[in-house]
Sequence to fold (218 residues):
Amino acid sequence: MTPAPDRWELPTPVGEAAARVHPAPEPRAVLLLGHGAGGRSDGREVLALAAALPSRGVSVVLVDQPWRVAGRRVAAPPPVLDRAWRAAVPQVLERVAPAPLWLGGRSAGARVACRTAAELGAAAVAALAFPLHPPGRPERSRLPELALPPAAGVRLLVVQGERDPFGAPAEFPPGYDVRPAPAADHAFRVPRGAAPDQAAVLAGVVEAVASLLEPLPR
Fold:
């Protein structure tokens, strides 16, 4: 039986955050993942990464923002999310084995990672289901946030569902490393009977994020 991950309480200026740690035996990188505006760090693709990446050399840390730890249902505004993240990340790094830092998350968590990657010293950002725009509102583009990591020399990987109403892979400009998740929606859910099936799509998400290991020494 796999042991339960360690849970850490992380005080921040805007309330207490929490982290669940899935350590790699011999870490080549550490990936901190934030959640979206709709829930904790328990999305299907996030849990798939936490289950699969440690054996491949990536320690995975799932971070819950203070608004969720406190039991609130409405997400905090972006500046508050960023303040909590800036305070939580250094505390995690004090407790994990030294390794290149990757930041990431799904949806709103991906936005936080993009906005803070350069100042926190990240080597890469894994943006899962990045909300390029609100559904049906492509004119309200969040591309300036997505552009921040590459502008600072931080490697950026986007994994995006083909049916994501917040921005399909084809909507991202040329030059971005966008990996499509076939038939998947914003939650990386695929219709019943779809090919590839749900398990194969999640395996593809894992492979996409694991590709960030390619330039790192063993």
Q: What stands out?
A: The CA atoms of residues 1 and 51 lie 13 Å apart. The mean pLDDT is 93. Strands lie at 6-12, 15-22, 29-34, 58-64, 101-106, 124-128, 155-161, 178-181. The longest helix spans residues 78-93.
